[in-house]
Amino acid sequence: MERASTTITGEVSRDDYDALIQAAGRLPGVRLQGMTSLASSDSRASFADQLLKQALENGRRRAQTTARALGLPKVELLLIDQRGSIHRPMPMVARMGEASFRPGEAPKPSQNLTLELNYCLR
Predict the structure, then answer these.
(1) Is the pTM of this model over 0.70?
(2) 17 within 8 A of 101, measured Cβ to Cβ
(3) How many whole angstroms from its chain centre is CA 70?
(4) How far apart are CA 67 and CA 86, in angstroms?
(5) Contact, 92 vs 37, CB < 8 A?
(6) CB under 8 Å to 50, separation ≥6 — which residues?
(7) 44 DSSP 8-state letter
(8) Nearest CA among 23, 4, 1, 26 for reference residue 12
(9) Residues 22-60: pLDDT tens digits?
(10) What are the helix and strand counts (H, E) for the chain?
(11) Contacts by 36-42 with C-beta closer than 8 Å and gap 24+?
């Protein structure tokens, strides 16, 4: 008895996801697993820009609150250390035999942005 295994990777839009599961899942010996939800590159860049803007506004607001609490009038941003944005895909597992997949059920991709903001308070 011989056994072979192979892995196929690729990207499919939410609208075509159900058709892929139905077509591939009916093939003999095919097992679907490890599906991942990814943002499009345009969406990912736009979202990263929004995260950056919100992080900078939040950092400035906290620095100003700290300066006021200390009785200091001036807040000056000295350094931004951006560790890079980390894309964390959301895994999905396709199960045949259950109701058909509805694209709206797929989890939304998530993204994290880590910044270290150094301010001078005087």
Answers:
(1) no
(2) yes
(3) 38
(4) 31
(5) yes
(6) none
(7) H
(8) 23
(9) 787 777 877 777 666 676 777 777 877 888 899 899 999
(10) 2, 4
(11) 36/89, 36/90, 36/91, 36/92, 37/89, 37/90, 37/92, 37/106, 37/107, 37/108, 37/109, 38/11, 38/87, 38/89, 38/109, 39/87, 39/109, 39/111
